[in-house]
Amino acid sequence: MYFAQLAVNGLVQGLVISLAAMSITLVFGIVRFPNAATGDVMTVGAFSGLVVYPMTGSLLASGIFAVIVTAAVALISHLLVFRRLAGRSVVALLVASIGVGFVLRSIMGLVFGHQPMVFSMPLSRPYRIGGLAINPLDLQLALLAAVMLALAFAVLHLTPIGRQMRAVADNPSLARVSGIRSGRVLAALWVLAGAIAGAGGVMLGVKTVVNPEMGWDMLMPAFAAAIFGGIGSPAGALLAGLILGVVQEMSTPFVGFTYKIALSFAIMLVVLLRRPTGLLGRIEGVR
Amino acid sequence: MLSYLLAIAIITLIYLLLSFGLSLQYGSVGLINFGHVGFFAIGAYTSALLALSGVPLFASFCAAALAAGLTAWPIGLISLRLRDDYFAIVTLGFSETVRIIIVSEKWLTNGVQGVPGIPRLFSSLPVGFEAQLATAGLLLAVCTLAALAMWRIIKSPFGRIIQAIRDNEDALKALGKDPARFKIQVLMLSSALAGLAGAFYAHYITFIIPEQFVPLVTFYVWMAIIIGGVGRISGAIVGTVLLMVFLEGSRFLRDFIPGVTEVEMASLRIGVIGLLLILFTLYRPQGIMGDYTKR
Amino acid sequence: MTFEAVDICKAFDGFEVLRNVSISMPLDGLVGLIGPNGAGKSTLFSVISGFMPPSSGHVTFDGMSMDGMSASARARQGMVRTFQVPKEFSHLTVRENLMAAAPGQAGESLSGLFLRPGLIRQQEKALKARADEVIAFLRLDRVADSSAGLLSGGQKKLLELGRALMVEPRLILLDEPFAGVNPVLIAEIMERIRELNGRGIGFFIIEHDLEALTRLVSHLYVMDQGAILAEGEPAAVLAEKAVRDAYLGGEA
């Protein structure tokens, strides 16, 4: 029962990783670089949510505001930085994304300071379902994530621009030939990636504490999940994030609290060496 | 004042060793190493712990270089099978893992409390100016040797292969040479340099904690080589000096602008670094001293 | 003393590019492979030379299985390939290109570099002499010290041949050595190939230029749509109706 409880806790943690990994995998699959600013975009989301929450007391309102802010931030980073680096080497994009992350972290630090802050949620009695304790807050968070995920998949699968995004991720050369890679698709991609990261940021902020470094610390598990799920595969990222979250939680009694972060690194290494296409991916990570 | 300048010189030279290694990796064989600080940390802890258990400093410094260089070997074997961008992620994960291990294995590293009382270099000299001067002198000699070694590598048959790797890896494979072998050697050498830098750092600061080995350090070094010009010895020097001017200058600046706290300054610093990384990749990717395109 | 590729198949995303292709030749032979564009010649080369794993099939070299060997390991066994689009080391000079290709250099390991400077100087001297021999043999004297990136297409083809020679291979796989080369230089390259073959080096040559190839080789394979269509003595092969239809018909 103890482990079942850990697994349940891990699922919520996993949803955060899933959202971060989806944001990464979308950009990686289409713009072809691992966006190291993803974590800091999440931080921006957490702070944005934190600003709105005391005013409204509504998690949903906080989430919506955060998602709008981070979508805008991601779009701006695309317009000002990443779009101008199109066609440059991966290191240029990678280093620039580190730069973007640093700038965001710096702004958060200057505006909000480094004192850890929390969403002051009203305490509520956990639901008891067959011996499992389920926190209503976790349910709300899971719901929030589900809404974001549903929206993301709806955009990807039901809209023309989403189909074009998936086409580019599936087969870049084919998409290039058909001239899909237009500015509109890329702009939409960044908005979507930013929004997803923002939702993840709010969740992370509610679950833990909000500080300028929080997002950066998510980067490793998020990269691991993106690779584990298969680069360019949002469904893979979702699945891998959940698995990683559960595995991390359930391993804590064995490896301790600190090593659970290293665990995602280990999983990533094994995946890269054994099955570089990940769970659902198609693009190879090995030469 | 003089002693302050010497202190800065020492830190600059330590960073220069880091810059040389990273510059050699990226500039020559195109490795995007985002985990350089991991090797720095391994060097620092190896030498510090050995010295504290009574090993002579010369031996502990060698051990630091060796430990970092040898750690690079499996990392290289694993990672060189991966694409460049995956290599960056894996090395970043490696350096974070190193830090987590340092935090967790308290029996060895004393965890977040850190390792205090690390013996200084030249402890026979009077504490203060003379010992500092001797340390700076030794570091200068090591950096000069490292620069000469880099220069020798670039001008040698090895350098010829390195250029060939940059020009066309497939052609090299078709001729029976394994590009990965050369990359691993470069990775091991520059990691050993980073380990050595870590030893100097530990024995100069005399107190190390895991917080000193965060990824930010790696990106300080990246900033230095990108600003200076990748793959060039002169670029690494210019970039590292500018990095130090910036880091130290921002500290001075705080003394002159009232009301700015150290935390705010740290935020500002990281923002400026970020901005510089963006601006240089956008507008001057070759750095100040020019790109390494021709030997 | 033979080179064999047996039942090589290769499919991309379910699309069969090579279907049960088999090649067999003596290691000192002079064998050609022709076929229209898209016949799978270059894919076959990539599979044989280890740049691409086959979906199935085997490669043996002088009785030794090369299956699963990396491209560089195959080259070290004495089978060196060139590329259709020359892959010169563009920032190195012609001489440096050749010297870089030579195997067994002490200066290629960091330990050797710092511990045995004397040996390296000696080796470099010998290497330079050897490179200059190859340069003279290929008549590249005038451009020996120019950056390889500045050479003409034909000179780059010669340089690739020269680099292959530096490895002292037993078999050279040439990928379209005459493509984009002027007729005078074609005659020159053919002459060099014959001369080298006379010294016992085998050649397996993919070529689009039918006329030049049939004059050069003693045995000819014809590929079409991923399979071997015909093989044998060049004149006889070219007389076959199927070959004329698939190849010459397509050309006309």
From TrEMBL, chain A:
Gene Ontology CC terms, in alphabetical order: plasma membrane
InterPro entries: ABC_transp_permease, BCAA_transport_permease
Localization per Swiss-Prot or TrEMBL: Cell membrane
Membrane-related topology note: Multi-pass membrane protein
Transmembrane parts of this sequence: 6-29, 59-82, 89-112, 132-156, 185-206, 218-247, 254-273
GO BP, one annotated term: L-isoleucine import across plasma membrane
Keywords in alphabetical order: Amino-acid transport, Cell inner membrane, Cell membrane, Membrane, Transmembrane, Transmembrane helix, Transport
Gene Ontology molecular-function annotations: L-isoleucine transmembrane transporter activity; L-leucine transmembrane transporter activity; L-phenylalanine transmembrane transporter activity; L-valine transmembrane transporter activity
Organism field: Nitratireductor indicus C115
The family this protein is said to belong to: Belongs to the binding-protein-dependent transport system permease family. LivHM subfamily.
Name under which the protein is recorded: Inner-membrane translocator
TrEMBL record, chain B:
TM region positions: 6-24, 31-52, 58-79, 86-104, 131-151, 186-207, 219-246, 266-283
GO-annotated molecular function: branched-chain amino acid transmembrane transporter activity
GO cellular component annotations of the record: plasma membrane
Keywords associated with the record: Cell membrane, Membrane, Transmembrane, Transmembrane helix
UniProt keyword annotation of Nucleotidyltransferase present: no
InterPro entries assigned to the protein according to its UniProt record, in alphabetical order: ABC_transp_permease, LivM-like
Protein name: Inner-membrane translocator
Membrane association type: Multi-pass membrane protein
Keyword set includes Cell membrane: yes
Subcellular location: Cell membrane
Automatic annotation (TrEMBL), chain C:
A Pfam family: BCA_ABC_TP_C
Start and end residues of each ABC transporter domain: 3-250
Alphabetized GO MF terms: ATP binding; ATP hydrolysis activity
InterPro entries: AAA+_ATPase, ABC_AA/LPS_Transport, ABC_transporter-like_ATP-bd, ABC_transporter-like_CS, BCA_ABC_TP_C, P-loop_NTPase
Matching CDD domains: ABC_Mj1267_LivG_branched (cd03219)
Transmembrane segments: none
Classification via SUPFAM superfamilies: P-loop containing nucleoside triphosphate hydrolases
Record family assignment: Belongs to the ABC transporter superfamily.
Protein name per its UniProtKB record: ABC transporter-like protein
